[in-house]
Every structure is written in structure tokens, then in C-alpha cells.
Design a protein that fits this description.
The chain has one domain. It contains 14 helices and 2 strands; from the N terminus they run ααααααββαααααααα. The chain is globular and about 45 Å long. It has a two-stranded antiparallel ribbon. By secondary structure, it is mainly alpha-helical. Strand 1 and strand 2 form a beta hairpin. Helix 1 packs across helix 3.
Length: 304
């Protein structure tokens, strides 16, 4: 099928738009750590059912040792580290701003691919990166009047329009996703994308379980499971995120270049604006809309 990878990338962006909104809402109710573990457990059982029907096996028994090694590492970095940062960013600065900053994933992917896969950045790539950073800066930076060193005269100063820790958390999520994509492509080859995703999800479950054990927060997970409102959102996000979203992202990088796939997936900041306004009643100003469009445009230039 022509443009299968590109279509899969577009569907991934749509799925991630749904899941980011669902997990933002759930994370504010029961905490991002609980949401991370529960959504992966739900997704794992969905994978078991799906692969049993489509492949005749509920577990990826046929995966090679090399596939398990790279996909497991991808799961630990992409799910446990990257998503832990991203989901906390959802709570701190919201899904819309977090997903805008996640548009840095393609440039990060290019840098990492250079070292792991030997891909080289062109002058056009550098230009695209500058445009992307400009778009993000339009949204997250603002000018405000401040007194400097007791001086009564007000002076203009650039500050962040959003929580700096929240922005750094989102950047951590972008970096984790970039590393996860590159390692996934290296480990998957032509192996079944859904089975490959199942390996990543399983590794994520183990990682979060260990994390929760040492942090002694299993009580919060139990409380989260009892929260019916949060569980509805987590279940919805699990279907569209770690099941459909992750699987289609692997299908995308399997059938087209990782950079092209990452670029199309990065349109989430634009897709998320209408539901942010209609569902969460967020006020989106013209500066944020322009910033989102410039950011996605920069990402597109990056891979021309």
C-alpha cells in the first residue's frame, strides 16, 4: 500500500491526541505514576487478546534475543523514563503545552540516529531545528515588566509563560521518546509491530513496578483503581495510547523513514487545540496558535 507508513504516522498523531487529553485528566485525579502503571497493564492484556487472535500466540515467543534486548531497552527508556517525565508534565503544564514541546522529538531523533544509525544532518535540517525552537519559544516565553536591583524603572525581561520544571519535564519526555523510537527501529526489523510493542509494554510494566516498590506508592495505585472516573479515562487512554498509538508508531517507522514518521507524529500540538478549547475550556490566544503552527512547520522543514 502506497504511503502506508505516512498514513500510520497520521493515525498515530490522532491517537496520541486522544490519549494525551485522557491521561492529563486522569493524572490530575490520581497522579501520573499510578496512571503510567495502570495504563500499561491494561494495554498488555489488550495486546495478549489481539496477538492471540491475529498471530495465534498471546505472547511474543517468536522474537529473537536481539529483538528482546533492543525493544526492552526501548521500553525502559521510552515508557518508564520518557513517559514518566511526560505524564508529570501533563499535570504541571497541561497536555497541550507538553505536546507542543514534544515536537522536539524529531530533532532529538535525528541527533540520536546520527550516533546509532549513522544519519547525517543537512543544512536544511539545521534550519528546521531553528524554526521549531522559534515556534516553541513563541508559546512558552513572554515579556513582563520587572524592577531590577531595586531600580524603580520597569524594564522588559523575557520569562517563561509556563512552569520551567513543567517545560523541562516535557523536554525529558521528548528525549525519551526519541531514544525509544531509534532503539525500536534497530531492534524490530521486519518483526510484527504489535508483538514488538507488547515487548516494550511488558518492559515498561516491570520498570514502573520496580519504581513503585522502592517509592512505596502501591497504595496510590490501589486508590487509583478504585476511582471509577479516573479508570474510565485511563482505559480510554490505554486503548488509544500504548495499544493503538505505540503500535501504529512502530508500523510507521517500519514502513517509512524514522524522521518522516516522527515529523508527521509531531502535528499533535495543532490537533490538540480544538479539543483543548471545546472539552477543557482552555483559552488559547493567537500567539499560541501561531507558535504551534510555526513549530510543526519547522519540524516539516527539518525533514525536507
Amino acid at each position: 500500500m502506497a504511503y502506508f507508513g505516512e498514513i500510520a504516522s497520521l493515525l498515530t498523531a490522532i491517537f496520541w491526541t486522544v490519549t494525551s487529553m485522557a491521561f492529563e485528566s486522569a493524572g490530575k485525579k490520581v497522579g501520573s505514576l499510578s496512571v503510567n502503571l495502570i495504563r500499561l497493564v491494561i494495554a498488555f492484556f489488550i495486546y495478549c487478546l489481539y496477538t492471540q487472535v491475529t498471530r495465534g500466540m498471546y505472547f511474543p515467543f517468536d522474537a529473537s534475543f536481539e529483538a528482546w534486548m533492543w525493544l526492552s531497552l526501548s521500553g525502559l527508556i521510552g515508557f518508564v523514563i520518557g513517559d514518566l517525565f511526560l505524564f508529570q508534565a501533563f499535570v504541571v503544564v497541561g497536555a497541550r503545552i507538553s505536546m507542543l514541546i514534544m515536537a522536539m522529538t524529531p530533532p532529538f531523533t535525528a541527533f540520536i540516529s546520527y550516533f546509532i544509525l549513522g544519519e547525517v544532518l543537512s543544512p536544511m535540517n539545521w534550519f528546521g531545528m531553528i524554526v521549531t525552537l522559534t515556534g516553541i519559544s513563541i508559546v512558552i516565553l513572554k515579556r513582563e515588566n520587572k524592577e531590577l536591583n531595586g531600580d524603580k524603572k520597569l524594564r522588559k525581561r523575557l520569562t517563561s509563560a509556563y512552569s520551567v520544571p513543567g517545560i523541562l519535564l516535557a523536554l525529558g519526555g521528548a528525549l525519551g521518546q526519541a531514544v525509544g523510537l531509534v532503539l525500536s527501529k534497530k531492534g524490530m526489523g521486519d518483526y510484527n509491530a504489535f508483538a514488538a510493542s507488547q515487548i516494550r509494554v511488558l518492559t515498561g510494566i516491570v520498570g514502573f513496578a520496580v519504581l513503585l516498590f522502592f517509592m512505596k506508592r502501591y497504595g496510590r495505585v490501589v486508590s487509583a483503581v478504585k476511582n471509577k472516573s479516573a479508570m474510565k479515562r485511563i482505559t480510554l487512554g490505554s486503548v488509544f495510547g500504548p495499544f493503538l498509538g505505540v503500535s501504529f508508531s512502530l508500523l510507521a517507522i517500519q514502513h517509512t523513514k524514522a524522521g518522516i514518521a516522527a515529523t508527521i507524529m509531531a502535528i499533535v500540538p495543532v490537533l490538540i487545540i480544538p479539543p483543548a478549547i471545546l472539552i477543557f475550556k482552555e483559552k488559547v490566544n493567537w500567539k499560541e496558535v501561531v507558535g504551534a503552527i510555526v513549530t510543526v512547520g519547522g519540524v516539516a522543514i527539518f525533514f525536507l
